[in-house]
Amino acid sequence: MTRMIFVNLPVRDLAASQAFYEALGGTVNPMFSDEQAKCLLFSEAIGVMLLTHERYRQFTSRPIGDARIHSQALLALSVETRDGVDAVLETASSAGGTADPNPRQDLGFMYSRSVEDPDGNVWEIMWMDPAAAAGGPPDA
Fold first, then answer.
1. If we measure between CA atoms, which residue out of 39, 45, 31 comes closest to residue 14?
2. Which of 4, 21, 72, 124 maximizes the CB count within 10 A of its CB?
3. Distance CA 24, CA 123 (A)
4. How many CA atoms lie within 13 A of 110 on its CB side?
5. What would the pLDDT profile of 23-71 be if each residue is shown by its tens digit?
6. Hey, how many other C-beta atoms are within 10 angstroms of the C-beta on 43?
7. Are 123 and 77 in contact (CB under 8 A)?
8. CA atoms of 97 and 90, how far apart (whole Å)
C-alpha cells in the first residue's frame, strides 16, 4: 500500500474552501466527503481534508487557531513547470485565494509563489528543476 499524507484543515465556509482547493488542482473524493467534510486529492498519495469547525472539533479538544493571524504550518505543493506556478496562483486567486502573502522566490533552479486560502492557510506553489531535485546540475 502506498503511504499517504492527509492535511486536515478547519474551514469556516466549506463551499468556498472547496472551490479554492479545486482551483489548486484537487479533485473531490466523494467517498470521504459529506456536508461537513470534503476530501480533495492532489495525487494518489496526497489529500487535503476540509472540515467544518464542528467536524474538526470531533478530533481535538484544543481551540481552533486563526491562520490569518498566526502561522501554524508551512505547506508546499509542487507543480510540473515553472509557468505552472503562475498559472496555479492565478486560478487559486480567482477562486477566493489571496496571491503572494509572502515574497516570490526565484533561485533559477527553483521558483515559488504563495497563495492564502479563504481561512488564512498559506500554500507555497513551487517548481524545481528536475535535475536539481535529483541532485544533479540544473537543466539549461
1. 39
2. 21
3. 10
4. 13
5. 999 999 999 999 999 999 999 999 999 999 999 999 999 999 999 999 8
6. 14
7. yes
8. 9
Buried b (16+ CB within 10 A) or exposed e, 82-116: bebbbebbebbbebbbebeeeeeeeeeebbbbbbb
Terminal-residue alpha carbon distance, the chain? 37
Q: Give the CA distances from residue 119 to residues 5, 16, 90, 100, 115, in Å, rounded to whole numbers and listed in that order.
A: 21, 10, 18, 15, 11
Looking at this protein, which amino acid is placed at residue 106? D
The strand pairing partners of 66, in sequence order, are: none
The answer to whether the beta carbons of residues 120 and 66 sit under 8 Å apart is yes
In the numeric block, which cell numbers belong to residue 36? 461537513
Q: Is the pLDDT of residue 108 over 80?
A: yes
Pairing label, strands 46-52, 37-41: antiparallel
